[in-house]
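User: Structure please.
Assistant: Input sequence and predicted structure:
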Amino acid sequence: MSSTDSPGSRVSIDPATTLGAVRLRVSDLEGVAAFYQRAIGLHEIARSATEVHLGVTPGAPLVELVGDADAPVRPARTTGLFHLAILVPTRADLAQAVHRVVDAGWSFTGASDHLVSEALYLDDPEGNGIEIYRDRPREEWARRADGELEMATLPLDLDGVMASLPPGVPDEGMPPGTVMGHVHLQVRDTAEAGDFYGGLIGFDPTVTAYPGALFVSAGGYHHHLGLNVWGSRGAPAAPEGSTGLDRYRIHLPDAAEVDAIAGRLDAAGHVVTVGADGHAVRDPSGIRVVLAS
């Protein structure tokens, strides 16, 4: 449960907190859905006339696509999604992801070693950023003298990644155990975002010295949220109904934790609405967050 032992004490979110589905508004529902199946390896687990939900486990979507052929394109220099980050269980799974993307005729935009993880980057057909990554074991994560996690952006040992997958292993899509590892957002101000996601929701800062960015997490993870201003410092929110990020979900272990956070947000003047899928609120950059147990 959150800690609020004394006035002015820092709240801390439950360490079992994770991230849930990222919902994207897209203009070409069928084309984007096909991309997430062929190039990313997610499976269709639910469908309606206007939505396609994709994931690994039935009932637990990782990406929700909402189709709107008339949606305006998200303008440049607005807040929203930098990338969604799909965490695979093993290095061999990361290698399989390379084969899958290439076999689908798609290209990567980058590949990095972040010390705590190894990551691949690409964009979906409508420009939404995607990271596919695997974590190194926590006991290998180094810390600096000030206690912060040591993270960097170094060249990925792609040969080593590819050598981890034995020849001839069939591709059956993203494997069991694949989750939404983190979400990286473009915000208008990192200090403001830190007050919201740290001071009110209760995520702990893990890396504060990375230029133009802040990373926060629950339970000592390297980060559940990345918050950067690299192309969005002081920017407005994307217009309502435009393509791109519609909302993302934070999953908490129980309803009491959701209520506690919603109470803090309400007391701080943020409008919290309760719906069938959880408590929804917009962060200071206008990004919609759903808190659910």
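The first strand starts at residue 18 and ends at 26.
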